[in-house]
């Protein structure tokens, strides 16, 4: 990395201060451990100290695992690119043997994972020290992180605002300097949205790039994929080197390049990039989100790329409907699974009213309707394949507005009362016919309309922190690439990181 964009390379003092700890990315901290300048125990203590100071304000960590982390260190850490670096797991999908995984829900509180997921095992192989699990909305269903089970996570840049979701706890923890990197999953933008809200780098890999076993063969019919949120581009590339590749559960394994980290050493060719600020669901986009794209266009042109405004030709209503049908169906399946696991009835699960309503709606969608909606994913993939015959990448806002205030997605009182009534009397077929639930979902998508396309097509996409609003809130921009082309995204991200360094722009909390 260019020294102007890289984290500080100065050696820390004998006693690692918080300023020292936060002045390095994960690779930088690992190098300190490797050179003997600092120990893994000292890094863990620095992370815990930071967490104890800031977590009460941001509610990012919901399950501290400090003793587990100390045992990891005592047992000996693998020799990897991040040996000794403190790390946090999102409390969803990432099963860690012998520890709780609550999935953001009261229904799962106290449920202990019987074994590591394959992705967790690979995280461990990178050498990280896992010392906690981060907050997530119930079942990862929202673009904000405000579960009833644990309370809202808050944005370190302004605690009255959301850090995004569903990996909001991870985003808040990284932005607040607790860790330089944390795990996340992305089924509709859940890595990119918190990255955009928190001033971080967030890459959603291609469908099938990272493993989903042994508990799942695919996540959300292939719409969801897991990776990390980071402060530096090189950390994201280096971790992808460790975790990429199929496992026994992978239904569509992808060929892996030799090294994403090494690819950052190769020069980036001039790119042809199309851009749009038009909402993918036909809603209004705030002026600040448009400014974020305009600023990025100017920067890209200065770097020698050809940038052109475009209009994408696809059915926005079909896109939203296809995503929501998958979403409703999987909530129903997740609730069935939870009911079986917990030995109770579907209607007796201790889940939020909105989750229960969505689950019942999912049960009332026919198998034929679900398959028809899934088949439309191919139409969007074909549209993007034609687009990429002319353009290397697509640039959009990541969000349609700056990070919303805490509670902005909370249903009004009449909707809450309506959901309770519907759930109590089983009126879900009637509710489905009224379109009320779909309208509620569309209202939420209004602020988050740009990210779902990459999930349905399976393409890689990233959010890059290139803009802050007039209120000093981060507002990232999104780049989408053709299926399998994470290399171009990472190379461009590094070029942007060098041209407009963001590492030292940190939230003060």
Brief digest:
The protein is α/β, with parallel strands linked by helices. It has helices spanning 18-22, 26-35, 40-58, 66-75, 118-125, 168-175, 192-198, 233-243, 260-263, 287-302, 316-342, 353-363, 367-387, 413-425, 428-434, 436-445, 452-457, 486-499; strands at residues 61-64, 86-90, 129-134, 181-186, 201-204, 225-230, 272-275, 306-309, 393-397, 461-464, 477-480. Helix 10 links the parallel strand 7 and strand 8.
Plain-language structure description:
It is a single chain. This protein is α/β, with parallel strands linked by helices and 509 residues long. It is built from 18 helices and 11 strands. The chain has an 8-stranded mixed sheet with strand order 4-6-5-10-11-9-7-8, sandwiched between helices. It is globular, with a radius of gyration of 21 Å.
Write the CATH homologous superfamily of the largest domain. Amidase signature (AS) domain
- Spell out the helices and strands N to C: HHHEHEHEHEHEEHHEHEHHHEHHHHEEH
Low-pLDDT segments, ≥5 res: 1-14
Distance between the termini: 28 Å
DSSP strand count: 11
What sort of overall outline do the alpha carbons produce when their principal axes are compared? globular
Number of helices: 18
Q: Provide the β-strand percentage band.
A: 5-15%
- State the domain count: 2
- What CATH architecture label of the largest domain applies? Alpha-Beta Complex
Which sequence of strands runs across the widest sheet?
4-6-5-10-11-9-7-8
What CATH calls the topology of the largest domain is: Amidase signature (AS) enzymes
Major β-sheet profile: 8 strands, mixed
Quick one: CATH class of the largest domain? Alpha Beta
Helicity range = 40-55%
Derived from helix and strand composition plus strand pairing, the structural class reads: alpha/beta
Task: Tell me the Rg in angstroms.
Answer: 21 Å
Average the pLDDT over all residues and give the rounded result: 93
């Amino acid at each position: 990395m260019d020294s102007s964009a890289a984290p500080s390379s100065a050696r820390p003092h004998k006693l690692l201060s918080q300023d020292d700890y936060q002045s390095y990315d994960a690779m930088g901290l690992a190098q300190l451990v490797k050179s003997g300048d600092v120990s893994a125990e000292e890094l863990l203590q620095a992370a815990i100290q930071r967490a104890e100071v800031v977590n009460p304000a941001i509610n990012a960590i919901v399950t501290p695992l400090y003793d587990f982390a100390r045992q990891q260190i005592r047992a000996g850490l693998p020799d990897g690119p991040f040996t000794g670096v403190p790390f946090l797991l999102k409390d969803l999908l990432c099963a860690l043997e012998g520890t709780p995984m609550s999935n953001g829900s009261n229904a799962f509180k106290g449920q202990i994972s019987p074994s590591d997921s394959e992705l967790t095992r690979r995280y461990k192989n990178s050498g990280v020290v896992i010392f906690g699990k981060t907050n997530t909305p119930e079942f990862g269903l929202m673009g904000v992180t405000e579960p009833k089970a644990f309370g809202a996570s808050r944005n370190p840049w302004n605690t009255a605002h959301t850090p995004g979701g569903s990996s909001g706890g991870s985003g808040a923890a990284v932005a607040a300097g607790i860790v330089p990197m944390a795990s996340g999953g992305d089924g509709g933008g859940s890595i990119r949205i918190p990255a955009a809200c928190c001033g971080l780098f967030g890459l959603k890999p291609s469908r099938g790039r990272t493993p989903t076993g042994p508990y799942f063969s695919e996540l959300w019919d292939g719409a969801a994929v897991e990776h990390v949120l980071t402060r530096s581009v090189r950390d994201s590339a280096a971790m992808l080197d460790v975790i990429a590749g199929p496992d026994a559960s992978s239904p569509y394994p992808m060929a892996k390049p030799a090294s994403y980290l090494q690819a950052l050493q190769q020069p980036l060719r001039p790119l042809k990039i199309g851009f749009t600020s038009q909402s993918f669901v036909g809603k209004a986009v705030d002026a600040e989100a448009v400014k974020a794209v305009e600023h990025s266009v100017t920067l890209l042109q200065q770097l020698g790329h050809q940038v052109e405004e475009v209009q994408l030709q696809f059915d926005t209503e079909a896109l939203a409907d296809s995503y929501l049908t998958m979403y409703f169906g999987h909530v129903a399946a997740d609730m069935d699974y939870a009911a079986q696991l917990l030995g109770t009835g579907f209607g007796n699960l201790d889940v939020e009213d909105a989750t229960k309503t969505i689950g019942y709606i999912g049960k009332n969608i026919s198998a034929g309707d679900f398959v028809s909606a899934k088949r439309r994913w191919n139409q969007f993939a074909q549209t993007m394949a034609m687009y990429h015959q002319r353009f290397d990448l697509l640039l959009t806002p990541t969000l349609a507005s700056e990070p919303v205030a805490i509670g902005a997605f909370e249903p009004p009182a009449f909707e809450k009362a309506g959901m309770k009534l519907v759930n109590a009397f089983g009126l879900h077929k009637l509710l489905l016919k009224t379109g009320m639930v779909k309208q509620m979902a569309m209202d939420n998508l209004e602020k988050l309309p740009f990210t779902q396309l990459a999930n349905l097509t399976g393409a890689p996409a990233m959010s890059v922190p290139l803009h802050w609003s007039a209120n000093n809130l981060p507002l990232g921009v999104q780049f989408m690439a053709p299926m399998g082309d994470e290399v171009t995204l990472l190379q461009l991200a590094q070029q942007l990181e060098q041209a407009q360094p963001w590492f030292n722009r940190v939230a003060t909390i």
